[in-house]
Design goal:
Number of strands: 15
Helix content: 25-40%
Radius of gyration: 22 Å
Largest sheet: 7 strands, mixed
Strand order of the largest sheet: 6-5-4-3-2-1-15
Shape: globular
Structural class: alpha/beta
Strand content: 15-25%
Distance between the termini: 33 Å
Length: 407
C-alpha cells in the first residue's frame, strides 16, 4: 500500500511494544477518530469511486525522494518527487543533490529500468537544493540506455531561464546533455498578477513579443553565445515537447509564477484520464497558483515552517502548515500532501522530546481538512492517487502510535 523506508523505527516501535497493548490504551481515541473520519468522507463528493470513474486508465504513483528544505537531515533529503504516470512515462519534480542515490535506494536493481522511462525533469527554481542532482540523473539515464543498447527517447528539462548559464557552463566545459530544454516561462500561465521578486543583476530577461516569450541578451557579453545556442534549438524542442505530451496523454501542463525568488514557479499537470496534480515548489501562498490549480486531485505544497514561525515564513518567502491548508481549501483540492520541512523539525509528532512542528492558527474547516484530507510526506513515501482516500487516516494512526505514552 505504502511504506516509510526511512522510518523503520515506526515499525520497530509497534512490534516491540506489542500492538495489542497499544490498541488497549488508545481504543477510545481510535473510535472517536474513526467515526469522525467516516462521517467526513461520507460528505466528500470526490471519493474513490468518483475518482476511479474519471481515471480508469491511469492511477499514477507518487514517490517522495526528498522532503527537507535547504539542508538534508538523517531522515530527509532535499527536494525531489517522482511522478510515475504509467509503465512508460515518469516525471521528476525537482532534483536536489542526492536524488539519484534516493532513487537507487528505492528501486535497487531496477534503477536503470526506472531511468529508461524518465521523460521529463522539472526544476521549480534556481535554489541549489532543488536542482543540484539534475546532472547526475541525466548522466545515469544516458548510461542506462547504453547498457541496454537502445537509443534514448527525448528527455525534456523544464526549468527557469536563470538556470541556463549553469547548464551552459557544464555543456561547454565537460559534455553535451543531449536534452530538450523547455523554459518555465514558455508555458507559464498568469491568472492573477502578484508582486514577484526581481533579479538583482540582469543576466537574462524574459519579455513578451508577439505573444511568445523570448530571451534577450543584456549587460553580460558571455550570455550572447548561450542565447544564440538556445534559440537555434528552441522551436525543435517545442515541437518535440508537444509530441511527448500527446504520447503521454497529458491534457495540459503549465507553470505558474509564485512568490519566492526570481523565476520561481509552481507546476500543474492534468492528464486525459481525469487526474490533476499541482506542485507548489517553494512559495508564499500564491493566488495565481490557486486559480491555475483549481479543482486539483492532489496538491503537493511546501510547509517549511510551523505556525509559530509565521513571521519567519513571510521573511523567507515560504509557507506555514496552516497557510498550505488554506491554499488547498481555496483551490478545492481532493487531497493535500505537505512537504519541504525545515531541518529544525526533527519530529512530526504532537508530543516529542524534540521540537515538533506546530499548528495553531486554523479555522475549524482547515483543522478538519488537515486531519482528514492531508498527510505529512516523509522520504520514500510511495502512494498511488487512488490510495490517498484513506492514507490520511493511516498516517494519523501511525503518528498516534509513535507519540509518547499517555498518563
Amino acid at each position: 500500500f505504502f511504506f516509510f523506508q526511512a522510518e523503520d523505527g515506526i515499525r520497530d516501535f509497534c512490534l516491540s511494544r506489542g500492538l495489542g497493548d497499544v490498541y488497549k490504551r488508545q481504543t477510545e481515541e481510535f473510535k472517536t477518530q474513526a467515526t469522525s473520519l467516516i462521517n467526513f468522507l461520507a460528505n466528500d463528493s470526490r471519493t474513490l469511486s468518483t475518482l476511479k470513474a474519471k481515471s480508469e486508465s491511469s492511477d499514477p504513483r507518487i514517490t517522495f525522494l526528498g522532503t527537507a528544505s535547504m539542508i538534508p537531515t538523517p531522515s530527509r533529503n532535499v527536494s525531489g518527487i517522482m511522478l510515475e504516470i504509467n509503465d512508460d512515462f515518469s516525471l521528476l519534480l525537482d532534483c536536489g543533490e542526492g536524488t539519484s542515490f534516493q532513487l537507487q535506494r528505492i528501486y535497487g536493481p531496477d534503477y536503470n529500468k526506472m531511468l529508461t522511462k524518465l521523460r521529463l525533469l522539472y526544476i521549480s527554481h534556481f535554489h541549489s537544493d532543488h536542482h543540484l542532482g539534475l546532472l547526475q540523473v541525466v548522466q545515469d539515464r544516458r548510461q542506462a540506455f547504453i547498457q541496454i543498447g537502445a537509443a534514448p527517447p527525448p528527455l525534456f528539462l523544464l526549468l527557469p531561464s536563470n538556470l541556463l548559464p549553469f547548464l551552459w557552463a557544464y555543456q561547454s566545459t565537460l559534455e553535451a546533455l543531449d536534452c530538450h530544454i523547455i523554459l518555465n516561462e514558455d508555458i507559464k500561465r498568469v491568472v492573477v498578477e502578484e508582486a514577484l521578486p526581481k533579479m538583482r543583476t540582469r543576466r537574462i530577461k524574459v519579455e513578451k513579443e508577439s505573444g511568445d516569450d523570448v530571451l534577450e541578451d543584456h549587460e553580460d557579453p558571455k550570455m550572447k553565445e548561450i542565447v544564440s545556442h538556445f534559440h537555434k534549438s528552441r522551436e525543435e524542442s517545442k515541437e518535440a515537447f508537444r509530441l511527448f505530451l500527446a504520447e503521454a496523454q497529458i491534457k495540459d501542463i503549465c507553470t505558474a509564477p509564485v512568490v519566492h525568488c526570481p523565476y520561481a514557479y509552481g507546476i500543474v499537470i492534468e492528464h486525459q484520464a481525469g487526474w490533476k496534480v499541482v506542485y507548489s515548489g517553494d512559495t508564499r501562498p500564491s493566488k495565481n497558483l490557486i486559480e491555475v490549480g483549481k479543482g486539483a486531485t492532489v496538491l503537493i505544497h511546501e510547509a517549511t515552517f510551523g505556525d509559530d514561525m509565521a513571521k519567519e515564513a513571510v521573511h523567507k518567502k515560504h509557507s506555514t502548515i496552516s497557510e498550505a491548508v488554506e491554499v488547498a481549501l481555496a483551490m478545492n483540492v481532493w487531497r493535500l500532501i505537505l512537504t519541504h520541512f525545515s531541518a529544525r523539525y526533527v519530529s512530526m509528532r504532537t508530543k516529542s522530546k524534540h521540537r515538533a512542528i506546530e499548528v495553531q492558527h486554523q479555522s475549524l474547516g482547515a483543522q478538519r481538512f488537515l486531519e482528514n484530507k492531508s498527510i505529512f510526506a516523509t522520504d520514500f513515501l510511495t502512494t498511488r492517487i487512488s490510495q490517498l482516500e484513506y492514507l490520511p487516516m493511516i498516517t494519523s494512526l501511525l503518528k498516534s502510535f509513535s507519540d509518547e505514552d499517555k498518563a
